Each structure stands twice: as C-alpha cells, then as structure tokens.
Automatic annotation (TrEMBL):
Keywords of this entry: Hydrolase
InterPro entries, alphabetized: Alkaline_phosphatase_core_sf, Sulfatase, Sulfatase_N
Protein name: Sulfatase
Keyword DNA-binding in record: no
Domain Sulfatase N-terminal: 39-345
Taxonomy, superkingdom: Bacteria
Residues passing through the membrane, by range: none
Cross-referenced CDD domains: SGSH
Keyword Transferase: no
Length: 580
C-alpha cells in the first residue's frame, strides 16, 4: 500500500533523527506526495485519565485492549492538556489554539456567569479558524462524533457529517476516508460519586442486529434510574492494594475511590475493545491510524482542574497500520494544541497559519517541543489565575493571586468521598504536611519543581539559589508564550467578554447567507468574515440529516431545493435560508 510505504519513509526519518539534528533530517516531500494515501483516523477518547494503565507502568488493573494497542503501537508518556479540565482542553484540540488566547479558558463560559453579573458567552477565535473536523471534511473525509461537543462554543453545522450517539464510520460513502471520534465516559470524575454505579452521563455500546454496533447515550441519570453497584461490572478485587499519592490520605474512603477509579478504567478498556473489534470486522485496522488518549489528567482531588502534572498529563497511544514501530516509546513533549496541525499533516496538508500548535508526526512534522504550556482560570463559580510552563524535567508555575489559597470549594468535586475525607481530616487537624499544601491560605508567586525527582510537585525550588538560572529561563519562556498568544492573565472576565464581542454588550450574530443563482447554479455568500456555510439539498421533499460544507457553486436539478445556514465560531448562527 502507498500509505504503508509513506509511513515507512516517515519512520526511517524518525529513527534517523534519534542521533541527528531533527530539524535537518527530513524525508523527501516529493516522495511523500507520491506515496501518500489518505489514512482513516480513529480517536478513542476517555475522560479524567492519568497514566493509570499498564502501558504506562501502572499494573493495578489489567487493560488487555489498551495493552494490545500499546504492544502494536507507540506509547507517548509526555502528552499534556492545556488545562486540567475538559472544555478548555477540548477547545484546544478542536482549534489548534490555546484556550486562554481565544476566550475559552473559563470552565464553563456559558455557566456560572449570571451569579457574577455577566452574560453567558462563547469563545471567539480569529475569523479564519475552523474546527479541525471541518478542515477534514473539506479534504473529503467523513467525520463523526458520538458524544461530547463541549468546546466552549457551539459547533457549526459544518463541523461533522454525523454528531450523535449513532454516529459511525460505516455510514460513509464507499471507500471514503473517515475521521471518527469515540468518547468514553466510564472514567469521568462522576464515576467516583456515591452510590457507586452513578454516572452523570452513561454511554454504552449495544448490539443492533447482526452487522454492527451503535453507540447509545442514556443521558443524565435521575434518582429513579441510577445504576446500582450490583449492576456495575466488577473487574478488580475489592481488597486490591493501591499506591495512594502522598497528597491524599490513606483511608478506607480513599482506597474505595481508588478501587472505583481502576474498576472504571477496566470497564472503559472493555468498551475500547468493542470498538477495535468493529474496526477489525470491517477490515479497516490496517488502513487506520488509531489514537487513544484522555481529555486531561486524573479525576481525584488535587488532580482534575489543577495544572500540576496530575491534572495535565494524560496517556496517549498511537497505533499505525501494520504495527509500524510496534512496542516503542516516543518521549517528545506534546500539547493538545498539536493535534489539529498533526491531523492536517497526516493528510498531507500544511497546518494553518493561525494554529498555535505544531505537527508532531507526518510530512509537516517540525522540530520537537522544548516546552508545553497550560493555564487555569475560573472553574464553575470559583476563580483563580495560574499559568504554567514545563520542559522535560522542570515545571514552572506563576500564581497571579498569591493572596488567595489554592483550594477552590467546587461543589461538584466535593461530591467525591475522598474530597469529603480531605476536608474532614483538615478540620480535625489530621492532614500531614504534603496533604495540607493544597489548603494553604496563601501561595507563592512562583513555583519551580524538578519533576524527575518530585513527580507530585511538592518541593518548591523557586527560592533555592541553585535553581535561579532555571527559574529565570522558565519565567522568560512564560513571558514569551503569553505575548505570542495574546494572553493577558489579569484581564477580568467581564472585560474579556467585551473584547470578544468587539466592545458590544451582546453576542455578535452571523449574517444571513445570500444566495444567487444562474442557470440552476447556486452561489452562496455571507457578509460575516470567516463564517462557515452549510447546506442541504432537498430532493423530492426529503431533507438530508447531514449538512454539507459549502466550498464551490452548487448545481441544482429541477425540483430540488437548497437549505443554507452560516455560522462563524463564537457568533450566534444565522437563520436558515431556503431557496428553490
């Protein structure tokens, strides 16, 4: 296959780079263009996931499907989200831009604003920005998403061919390449709530006939339809011994939450196996690049929402067709903003100039990163302002509110029994020095950690004379990054909204599309700069479910009608216009 030849060329270049200047060792672009076929791309995305699985050194629970994927693929231990929580991180993945550069870093932009005297809003990236799935659709890919559209903005109708619990690559045209995102919710923070078995959102695979599976979303559970612990598959003995991180108390409640965490991971692994089986059954395994990753770090207290490694670092495995580089490890630093440019690189398209990430694979792979960056602002009703930069060894954190303590009393998190246990022991004066760090009433302006010897980031080196050169280096890198992406950490959220809305008090609207026709050839325009235009052709009174991405004039046959909507990301979408 041409695609396999292409991958072999890329891998030879990759191997050669191990002992040479990686910016100079490149394969021939002409050879790549000649050999490249468009691969299918499958993303398997789980939630609230630290490196708690055997391919990353944690053997607490068996994950046969992920272990197989790792044995046949490449393990990436140094993937970092741009935030310790899902929606900002998802904005970075979807756009290739840092959330704090486009107004996407407050969790969430459309909630907990009324209490602050602010309107709900959406992130507003530059006009040229499209979701990565739309760029893939424009390149001819069939793009599906089974669940989760929490991007900090409403996705345009042009984003996906299918966006529903029933979305599947099997619905594409024959031989059309696909980009499919399958989201798994079993490992979500809510999976630690009591009574165990509760899921805020429950997603399951179920068999629908002899030929295929579909994904079914059961929606939010209410009191009368929660799962019980008896209904929940048990994958791990309840007397399992756990390595409790030093920032958590070793109590019965903590151990029970750890048991739930790993049991949920095993259930997620089972779901991953069902999807991989479908891919194999369809004969597509060896023409598909498979990604597995989490949306940020772990679900436990002092993990999710924080920008320590426990909140940012998430495992990634990539399996290439024919098991190229099977069983290897790639230690390069990777950020979520790198996903969008890498997808374009895979399909032999140059990353878009506005993208703040960089391709880490494919013909447009660039020099490996020296740093990754992250930010934390508002979470639900509680606000802080923190920025972080990390290289392969050190983490630098800058606290813009040193007079405010670390711990934020987030009601949702306080439903976790371990969090309740931490608060109880704090009130009783029974937490040790490491566990009390999170509850300090003040925090230092700067923090520096040597993550190679202090992986839990408990020993601040910022005032240590021996590390002043490193501190200055990392601080300078942060200043450079903030300026490059236009991030003003001190900007109040109300002023941010005005900036996003160009000084207005109301969210901008996308102009209605205009339609002109000549000899049944339809041309569509929109006065709103950067608006994506979606359309449906209505034939014999039947309206398709999916919107097509408008790129060129459309020729209508006699009796056909066209339905059109325009939408710039962050703006209110236009009204739907119909023409016959």
């Amino acid at each position: 296959m041409k695609f396999l030849q292409f991958l072999l060329i890329v891998c030879i270049g990759f191997i050669g780079c191990q002992s040479k200047d990686k910016s100079k060792v490149k394969t021939s672009k002409e050879a790549i263009l000649e050999l490249l076929d468009r691969p299918n791309i499958l993303w398997l995305v789980t939630e609230d996931m630290g490196p708690y699985i055997p391919p990353f050194g944690d053997t607490t629970v068996a994950t046969p499907n992920l272990s197989r994927l790792a044995n046949e693929g490449i393990v990436y231990p140094n993937l970092y989200s741009t935030s310790g929580v899902c929606a900002p991180s998802r904005a970075a993945i979807a756009t290739g831009m840092y959330p704090s550069s486009i107004g996407a870093n407050h969790m969430r932009v459309n909630s907990y604003t009324k209490e602050r005297g602010l309107p709900p809003y959406e992130a507003v990236p530059p006009s040229e920005v499209k979701m990565i799935s739309e760029w893939m659709r424009r390149a001819g890919y069939y793009c599906t998403n089974n669940y989760k559209t929490d991007y900090q903005f409403k996705e345009p109708v042009t984003a996906w061919d299918e966006n529903s619990p029933y979305a599947h690559w099997r619905n594409r045209d024959k031989n059309q390449p696909f980009f499919s995102v399958i989201n798994f919710t079993e490992t979500h923070e809510s999976g630690l709530f009591e009574p165990y078995g509760f899921r805020e959102i429950e997603t399951r695979l179920y068999h629908a006939g002899d030929k295929k599976y579909k994904w079914k979303n059961f929606g939010e559970h209410h009191a009368n339809n929660r799962m019980t612990e008896e209904d929940t598959p048990i994958h791990l003995p309840k007397d399992t011994k756990f390595n409790i991180p030093p920032y958590l108390p070793d109590t019965e409640k903590t151990r029970r939450d750890m048991w739930k965490l790993y049991n949920n991971i095993a259930e997620m692994d089972k779901q991953v196996g069902a999807v991989l089986k479908q891919l194999e059954d369809d004969g597509l395994l060896e023409n598909t690049i498979i990604f597995f990753y989490g949306d940020h770090g772990g679900p436990l207290p002092r993990e999710k929402r924080l920008i320590y490694d426990s909140g940012l670092n998430t495992p990634m495995i990539i399996r290439f067709p024919n098991k190229i580089q099977a069983g290897t490890k790639d230690n390069q630093l990777i950020s979520f903003v790198d996903f969008a440019p890498t997808l374009l690189s895979f399909i032999n398209e140059e990353p878009k100039p506005y993208m703040q990430g960089q391709a880490f694979l494919g013909p447009f792979k660039t020099k490996e990163r020296d740093y990754i960056h992250a930010a934390a602002d508002r979470f639900d009703a509680e606000t802080d302002v923190i920025r972080a930069v990390r290289d392969k060894q050190y983490k630098y954190i800058r606290n813009y509110r040193p007079d405010q303590g670390y711990y934020l009393p987030i009601e949702y998190r306080e439903r976790i029994p371990t969090m309740q246990e931490l608060l109880r022991l704090k009130n009783e004066g029974q937490l040790n020095e490491h566990q009390m760090q999170w509850f300090r009433e003040r925090k230092p302006k700067e923090e520096l950690f040597d993550c190679s010897v202090d992986p839990f980031e408990l020993n601040n080196l910022a005032n240590n004379p021996e590390y002043q050169d490193k501190l200055k280096e990392m601080s300078a890198e942060m200043d450079k990054w903030l300026e490059a992406i236009g991030d003003n950490p001190d900007l109040p959220e109300g002023d941010l909204i005005k900036r996003l809305w160009n000084g207005s008090d109301t969210q901008p609207k996308t102009s209605a599309p205009t339609i002109t026709t000549k000899n049944r050839k339809v041309t569509i325009n929109c006065d709103t700069e950067g608006a994506s235009i979606g359309y449906k052709i209505i034939k014999k009174g039947k309206t398709p479910k999916s919107w097509m991405v408008y790129q060129n004039p459309i020729e209508l046959s006699e009796g056909e009608k066209i339905q059109v909507q325009a939408h710039r990301i962050g703006f209110i979408p236009s009204k739907t216009v119909e023409f016959d």
